[in-house]
Design a protein that fits this description.
The chain is of the alpha/beta class and 138 residues long. The chain has a single domain, classed as Metalloproteases ("zincins"), catalytic domain (Collagenase (Catalytic Domain)), CATH 3.40.390. It is 37% helix and 25% strand. It has three helices and eight strands, in the order βαβββββαββα. β5 and β6 form a beta hairpin. The longest helix has 19 residues.
Amino acid sequence: MPHVVINGRIKNKAKIESYVHALSKELGIHRMYSKVIFLTFKTSLEDDSQGLCWGDPSDGYCDISIARTSEGKELTFEEMMRTLAHEMVHCKQYFRNELNGWSGSWKGTKPRNYKYDNAPWEKEAYKRENELYEKCFI
């Protein structure tokens, strides 16, 4: 399993770590032992989103931030865990070199100035987040 480092104020860190491991297995990145997932829970994120993910496969890490509040509203634990499932899809995309954040390329093709909702990496993450949450959250 990738090593998981959890930071920030959040209850049930052991349960969250088990959840990340289950998500890793479901996403097929559970054998990437040299990788590290940094997971940070923050009061809010700069762009008021619920989650952010950045990864660098050459350096072997993925950095996920999950907000506890968004648009002035406190998020439920369930909402945060669904957001984590979404961001873990992005982590898989980075680890598997499907998504390159530096060039913005997707599966080797150059960026096309996708709108957020039409970006193929977002379509995959939105498509899988509920299924992953329901299958992996213990």
